[in-house]
Amino acid sequence: MTDCRAFLIVMDSVGIGGAPDADQFFNGNRPDTGANTVGHIAQARPLHMPVLARLGLGAAVRLASGQDAPGLMSPPQGLWGGATQISRGKDTPSGHWEIAGVPVPWDWHYFPDTAPAFPPEVTARICDLAGTQGILANCHASGTQVIEDFGTDHIRTGWPICYTSVDSVLQIAAHEEHFGLDRLIALCQSLAPMLHAMRVGRVIARPFLGEAPGEFRRTGNRRDFAIAPPGRTILDIAQNGGRVTHAIGKIGDIFSHRGISHLHKGKSDADLADHLIRLGSEAEPGSLTFANFVEFDTNFGHRRDLPGYAAQLEWFDGIAGRFLDTLRPGDLAIFTADHGNDPSWHGTDHTRERVAVLGHGVGTRAIGLVGFSDIGASVLAHLGLPAPDHGRSFL
Ligand SMILES: O=P(O)(O)O[C@H]1O[C@H](CO)[C@@H](O)[C@H]1O
Ligand SMILES: [Mn+2]
Ligand SMILES: [Mn+2]
């Protein structure tokens, strides 16, 4: 067995523009054509990201989208390129599964942007499981806004706040104390099989605290109940090959906890960064570490907070530098993303974009434009493991 280790790090929603099918994806009724998360942030405010810029982030933005990314245009000294997605969803499971070798073969079920958004049988099932006479919201919504709008009614009536988005999700927001955190999680878990049978990707528990509008805030106790990937992922293949696999952050939920030896969670990306840096030193020879950093997406992309997104990128770049310093000769680290979420864009939903592929540990190399599945295939090739069912190694 090889002693080489592999680290695959997904910066959630850090897209680089240029998706050839962006015109088929929408925020509201306007297409995602031209959306470019990193490009537009850097054009609004030059980014200081010396570590990822040195690997080739700026060059990747230009390759994928034809746009310049001020501050990031240093000559690449890592493995660098862009990746294009083929799965029909611009959501987290679609992106991660395809990176892990399983493009999504079906069309997800999406709830219409109508009021009500959910069919009567779904509403009835939620009421039945929750023991309530009704549900609140029942529409497309932003998660921070929906608790502002319905939090007071929720505390008064005890009814769960149920909402969706352009993604294939049913989200339930409920108060950790008035409704109860365990009760919310049990509700989502019990509801999930019905929704998965409808090809709804995830049921998500969104607990919050606070007693009045202006004070309501979501907590770190979010839980996702996702459909299991419909094929062998790189985590499955690595584990079947006798390797230790480490999942950091949301990776456990995204892969329905399959193929994972050790799960490392935290209340914030700062906690996850500590796990990543520690595993850089401690992960076993031959192991695979798969990490997701979610705050780019949840705290800044959906909130359309461009200065916040920029600051998070610069913070993460420092983490990336500290992490890379822990690696040994023969290790591979790849930084990539699962979709876009351009904070300068209209709407509040993800944006269809290409993503960067930035590799450390295999010298300077331009890989051009590859497919999402080629990322996972390359990780397995580096570890000396059998190839996945989709994708080709670019190493
Ligand atoms: O506005 P919030 O609740 O953060 O919702 C976002 O989170 C969901 C899951 O990632 C996405 O579908 C998007 O709607
Ligand atoms: Mn995502
Ligand atoms: Mn998101």
Question: What do these coordinates show?
Answer:
36% of the residues lie in helices and 19% in strands. The strands form 3 sheets. An 8-stranded mixed sheet has the order 12-11-13-1-14-15-4-16, with helices on both faces. Strands 5, 6, 7, 8, 9 and 10 form a 6-stranded mixed sheet that branches. It has helices spanning 37-44, 50-55, 57-65, 92-99, 120-130, 143-157, 176-197, 234-240, 251-254, 269-282, 295-301, 306-324, 372-383, and strands at 6-11, 26-27, 30-31, 79-84, 136-140, 161-164, 169-175, 202-209, 217-218, 223-226, 245-248, 262-264, 288-293, 332-336, 355-360, 365-371. With 395 residues, it is of the alpha/beta class. Strand 6 (161-164) and strand 7 form a beta hairpin. It folds into 2 domains: 6-105 and 230-383, Alkaline Phosphatase, subunit A; 120-226, Alpha-Beta Plaits (2-Layer Sandwich), CATH 3.30.70.1250. It is built from 13 helices and 16 strands. The chain starts with 5 loop residues before the first strand and ends in a 12-residue tail after the last helix. Helix 4 crosses helix 13 and helix 11 runs antiparallel to helix 12. The structure holds 1-O-phosphono-alpha-D-ribofuranose and manganese (II) ion (MN) (2 copies). One manganese (II) ion is lined by residues 297, 302, 350. The site of one manganese (II) ion (MN) has 3 residues, from loops.
Q: At the first level of CATH, what is the class of the largest domain?
A: Alpha Beta
Q: Estimate the global geometry from the Cα principal axes.
A: globular
Query: What does the main sheet amount to?
Result: 8 strands, mixed
Strand order of the largest sheet: 12-11-13-1-14-15-4-16
Helix content: 25-40%
CATH superfamily of the largest domain: Alkaline Phosphatase, subunit A
* Helix and strand element order: EEEHHHEHHEHEEHEEEHEHEHEHHEEEH
Residue stretches low in confidence (pLDDT < 50, at least 5 long) are none
Classification by helices and strands: alpha/beta
